[in-house]
Amino acid sequence: MTRVLLLGGTGDALRIARELRPGDVYSLAGLGKVPDDLPCAVRVGGFGGSEGMARYIEHEGIGLVIDATHPYAAQISANAAQASCSTRVPCWALRRPAWQPQAGDDWRVVNDWSELTDALAPFRRPLFTLGREPLAHLDEIPAHQFWFVRCLDSHPDTTRARILAARGPFTLEGERALFALQGFDVVVSKNSGGSATEAKLEVARDRHLPVVLLRRPQLPAVDREFERVADLLQALHLSD
Known about the structure:
Blueprint (H helix, E strand, L loop, with lengths): L3 E4 L3 H7 L7 E4 L12 E4 L4 H12 L3 E4 L6 H14 L3 E4 L12 E4 L2 H8 L5 E4 L17 E5 L9 E5 L6 H11 L3 E5 L8 H8 L4 E4 L9 E3 L2 H11 L1
Parallel strand pairs: 1-2, 1-4, 2-3, 4-5, 5-12, 6-11, 7-8, 7-10, 8-9, 10-11
Helix pairs in contact: 2-3, 5-6
């Protein structure tokens, strides 16, 4: 049987990991909770770039790499594609479709942190849902702003920011209550796709709030791409 290396850290990846076998490997960066109830092996930590991943693939006898990382984990995806090429081991990728704007949306797409802060200049109470990145900029908060940063990491609040440690999925009712309580006037997000964190967009639409979106990175070409976990699992089972 083909030994699988699954690169994960997302809810979609966890669904795939639950269908793997004892000889397969689920690899995590180690930033969140490490599952202990999977049928496959779990490794935590980096590989040392594409060359390190290639060495791991060869040493462990990996026959298939599955990239089910976050759509913004561009470097990991690039390393997987390069390691796959150098070892001639196939690489499949789960490419979650991006969210698409709907009637009533006010989306403002930016390319980087500099453009993002420029886009936020008119606002006072932004909700950041970018992960940990805003934590590195808490000393740069403009005098007229108070930030709310939602991420996985616990972090002390400051006089100018509140850190909301939380993990999705988030419900529509919960998001409505949070927005009403905190009075956000803009939402900052990655265009992650999927349903786990989409409720904030519906609430922003209902409240006529703008959404500043960080543009998705360009991901490398791989042997096969899938938009749905079910399709990838079917292909995986058929390939055994």
